[in-house]
Design a protein that fits this description.
With about 270 residues, the chain is of the alpha+beta class. It is built from seven helices and 13 strands. It has two domains: about 100 residues, no CATH class; about 150 residues, Jelly Rolls (Sandwich), CATH 2.60.120.
């Protein structure tokens, strides 16, 4: 059986009421659209030893925004404090508490972080955490994760699972034992904006429903999940309401022109 030649393509286009050029353009747009995938979310870095920490200095609770993500930090057992040596909680000025660390000199200190959008916690960095000392981090009410000296300069801790934080949830960084440590920085990524993808992993499945049951439990969100359940991200992108410059809108306009041309031809 012979392959489909150029003449055959023109014939197919003519049957639809399309010129060969418009037909080929439609084919190209369909090919591009079918290959659409969710954009990789860029990580957002909050530097508590730098500008973001300075904006939070000497307040009980404050917010700082980077890349459209607003993080609100709240001190437990004192006020947030930044110095040249670190970032932490100061119980009271002149109280003898280490002002730029999370410690237990007077009361066990901790910092709570919430966000204006759903995020993934990617990484935190601590300093002044020595051997035998310990901190802990609790992500979205989960099991506290022990943080101990890694033995390699400043201590970086990466999180690759169970690290989603909804707007209704928080991250809690706490002192556990030892002389205390500085909370230097943290990195988050915005969760997926796909409708119904509540856990931000790029699809709509049973895991999203369980997250809906646990944290959302509202009818509009459930309707989004039901409408998109099992749908691949490229197809969902095409069926969603497009932005004015999106390929799907161009496709729709060209299809409208094609239909109009066909009606005129009749």
């Amino acid at each position: 059986m012979g392959g489909l030649g150029a003449a055959d393509s023109v014939t197919v286009g003519d049957r639809m009421g399309l010129s060969r050029e418009l037909f080929l353009l439609l084919r190209l747009l369909v090919a591009v659209a079918s290959g659409l995938a969710p954009l990789a979310a860029e990580a957002v870095f909050f530097d508590l030893r730098g500008a973001q920490g300075l904006a939070l200095d000497e307040v009980f609770s404050g917010s700082t925004t980077v890349g459209g993500i607003t993080a609100t930090l709240t001190a437990i057992a004192g006020e947030l404090n930044q110095s040249g040596d670190g970032f932490g909680v100061n119980f009271l000025p002149g109280s003898g508490d280490d002002p730029d660390a999370l410690d237990g000199d007077i009361f066990p200190e901790s910092i709570t972080i919430t966000f204006n959008v759903n995020v993934f916690l990617n990484q935190i960095q601590l300093s002044k955490l020595s051997a035998g000392e310990e901190g802990a981090i609790t992500i979205a009410g989960g099991t506290p994760i022990s943080l101990v000296d890694t033995g390699v300069g400043d201590d970086e801790f990466n999180f690759n699972s169970a690290n989603s934080v909804l707007t209704s949830e928080s991250i809690v960084l706490s002192w556990v034992s030892g002389n205390g440590f500085s909370f230097d920085d943290f990195t988050v990524s915005p969760a997926s904006a796909l409708a119904g993808d509540f856990d931000g992993d790029g699809d709509r499945d049973g895991a999203d429903f369980l997250l809906w049951q646990r944290d959302l439990a509202d009818a509009p969100s459930l309707a989004l999940w039901e409408a998109n359940y099992g749908m691949p991200a490229p197809l969902a992108a095409l069926l969603s309401v497009p932005e004015p410059t999106s390929p799907s809108l161009v496709f729709a306009l060209l299809l409208g022109l094609a239909v109009g041309r066909r009606r005129k031809a009749r």
